[in-house]
Sequence to fold (181 residues):
Amino acid sequence: MSGLINTVVICAVAVLVIARQFSARRIDTDRRWWIVPVVLAFMALRGPGVIDPHHEVEASLLLGTELLIGLAVGAGWGWTTRIWTEPDGAVWSRSTKVAGVIWVAGICLRLGLFGIGVLLGVHQDSSALLLGLAATLLVRSGLVAWRARSLRPAAHERGPAYERGPAYGDGVAWAWRKERV
Fold:
């Protein structure tokens, strides 16, 4: 039953996160951006199925590779997210097409990793995938929050004549239409 719950949670979180990130969203840098990844990691580590006891070395290598893929996808996604400030000082973000390509590449790498595990005869639980997703979200959220804080001046630096700050992608003609918020 735990594997089924993990699979449902993985699919739900992936759909929710992907759908939310490809639309313009206001960033609140003061919120606790790390809570969802910590909950996902807790769910992944709560059971004994993360490492196959019959193939500990191989399972550990696969888990380590899964975490590295998760960290790389999160970093790529975080750095390719477009961040900008509005005239009122609000910071907004939206994932780019490149971020979508990074997601697809990460999924392909994870499928390849699963295939390697099957060839090695390693029992793979969904906990490793859940842990990799937690790493992805933690790195991506942390990078976006850090980048957003660098765009938003401190309250004492803002005055009535606050100007729009620099944004990643300034000067680039964007092909998509402006979204309503």
In short: The chain has a mean pLDDT of 79. Residues 2-23+53-151 form one domain. Strands lie at 25-27, 82-85, 91-94. Helices lie at 2-21, 35-45, 56-80, 97-120, 126-151.
